[in-house]
Design brief:
This protein is an alpha+beta fold. It is built from 10 helices and 9 strands. Strands 1, 2, 3, 4, 5, 6, 7, 8 and 9 form a 9-stranded antiparallel beta sheet that branches.
Length: 288
Amino acid sequence: MLERLNQALEHIESRLHQEIDVAELARAAATSEYHLRRMFSALAGLPLSEYVRRRRLTVAGAEVLAGNVPLLEIAVRYGYGSGEAFARAFRAMHGVGPGEARRVGAALVSQPRLTFRLTVEGSSSMRYRVVDRPEFVVVGYKARVPLVHAGPNQAIIDFVRGIGRPALEELAKLSDQEPQGTVAVCDDLDPSRAEGTELDYYQAVITSAAAPEGTTALRVPAGAWAVFTTSGPAPRAVQELWRDVFTQWFPSNPYRSRPGPELLRTRMSADGTEADAELWLPVERAES
């Protein structure tokens, strides 16, 4: 998988002067566009679109400083419709406009070319299983919240507190399918997985019962799910599990992510500092 991702990176480099078709990149990586975006964001630490933008402005910056080509010609070459649009993007990355950078020979920011390599760290194993599930329904309370990569998500904390314990206890009684009990459900995430992008968050149960007043039902199609378990400090253990799934498990197993909600069942310790968690991710067999 990493070799194919590196082929996609080479594809990007050869087309910095052209429109880059993500579907074409996915074909170069022999995977789906959805999984390519997810894998790239997890491995690189920035969205695919942001990497492409930064690489273009890095190469464009070198041409600006060289002083041989008019600025408008450079702008058009790298996909900007006007000198003004190019100047705004250039300043956002480099902290200086292209005209000033050329006049004074300013120091610019560089986005290095990425190469993905497999690094073996430690000898711990990841506990997982893959299960096929028929269609099921998520029922619960829903909010739109920002994505937080590390540390507590205050928007989620405030949302759950606002529901109230009595309502959550009544909801928990409706659980009649795996994963049992109250689950956190994340859906409709931005493909980039960039910090601060929004997602639909449910405090919910998996149930065959009708949705009570004030709740929302989300119908989930049949498919395969990879189920991972972890224990450790909250919320760090869960956030590190998600990271490890994409940086270690997917590159080493014949599966790729597919569109669908992510389910997280968490059992907290009495003092709220430790958690036992079960993470359900929608997957499909990768093409050989």
